[in-house]
Amino acid sequence: MAMKRAIVTGRHGQDAWYLTNFLTAKGYRVTITSHQPLSSSPRDVLGQSGKHDDQLDVCTLDLSDSNDCQQLISSVQPDEVYHLAGPSHIPTCEQSPEETVDAIAQGTLHLLEATQRSNATARFFFASSAEIFGDTEQSPQSESTVPHPRNIYGVAKRQAQQLVSYYRRKKGQFACSGILYNHESIRRPTTFVTRKITQAAARIAVGRQSRLQLGRIDAQRDWSWAGDFVQAMWLMLQADEPDDYVVASGETHRVQDWLEIAFARVSLDWRKYVDYDPSLARGGTNKTMLVGDATKIRNELGWHATVDFVDLVHQMVDHDMQHASGS
């Protein structure tokens, strides 16, 4: 059997790292893209052991350039396309609304159209977000929940998801959207509060940091492990028919829960080290709790999470302890 080929966009994101490792382990040849020029090897880019280096190709891709997208699909002729690229830090997106919409919605359109024209049999996955639901009055949210985004990131993701639906319904493309709730890992940048907390707990424990400034710690989210989510992406493209799926834990936890578990992992009381900084508090709250109902993907595709919330926090703290202690 010929080796399957996949394109994964968004090389700098945690999901692309986990997905590429997942796919190469399954025998795929993967082309992973970045919007920035690359000079490093696949092993340097992905931090891999070298076992699957010969299955990796790394290239630049300008999603704002339709010709660039066309050239990529034509040259690779992928069996599967996983479109993960785009901004994901919501406060930053709010500061650049035009760039956010262009990067997410227009970039998705260019890649969908290039796939349709150059390799119509390729299966297409788009990483949507729970932020499309925003101020919905329904909780938990499912695939049938009416979207009501409350920030520009959610608006852009909603537009892109509608494009995926259009290409599926009107052009017969095998195109799916995964409506992804919050998911974290050791690959998450420290601009995100979850990694900021686990790194701070580790650094404080070894004497490399004294205080941690945070905004609201009562904010609640539906958090999961990123590694589990990439399996969900893959399962969607192995299904008999294309569809959209909510991917979530179905549980909510507070930012304070991250503090309690992370600091306890290093035998510290978080209350002695955390200061409230009002400048870090994101304005407003959702009318309804954003928590996902993943019944559909569990029942239809057999997906299930393998890492629970406490284990996720422990995993991230342990990783950050290794780095903080220099081991």
Question: Care to describe what's here?
Answer:
This protein is of the alpha/beta class and 327 residues long. It has 2 domains: 5-183 and 224-247, Rossmann fold (3-Layer(aba) Sandwich); 188-221 and 252-289 and 308-324, UDP-galactose 4-epimerase, domain 1, CATH 3.90.25. It contains 11 helices and 13 strands. β2, α2 (42-46) and β3 form a beta-alpha-beta unit. α1 packs across α8 (226-238) and α3 (66-76) packs parallel to α5. It is globular and about 60 Å long. The mean pLDDT is 93.
What labels describe this entry?
single chain, 327 residues, alpha/beta, Rossmann fold, UDP-galactose 4-epimerase, domain 1, 2 domains, seven-stranded parallel beta sheet, two-stranded parallel sheet, 11 helices, 42% helix, globular
β content, as a range? 5-15%
The radius of gyration over CA amounts to 20 Å
Number of strands: 13
How large is the count of helical segments?
11
Helix content: 40-55%
- The side-by-side strand order for the widest beta sheet comes to 3-2-1-4-5-6-11
Secondary structure category: alpha/beta
Overall form:
globular
- CATH classification, class level of the largest domain: Alpha Beta
Low-confidence regions: none
Q: Gap between N and C termini, in Å?
A: 43 Å
Q: What composes the largest sheet?
A: 7 strands, parallel
CATH topology call of the largest domain:
Rossmann fold
Task: Please tell me the overall pLDDT.
Answer: 93
CATH architecture annotation name of the largest domain: 3-Layer(aba) Sandwich
Question: Helix-strand pattern, N to C?
Answer: EHEHEHEHHEHEEHEEEHEEHEHH
CATH homologous superfamily (4th level) name of the largest domain: NAD(P)-binding Rossmann-like Domain
Number of domains: 2
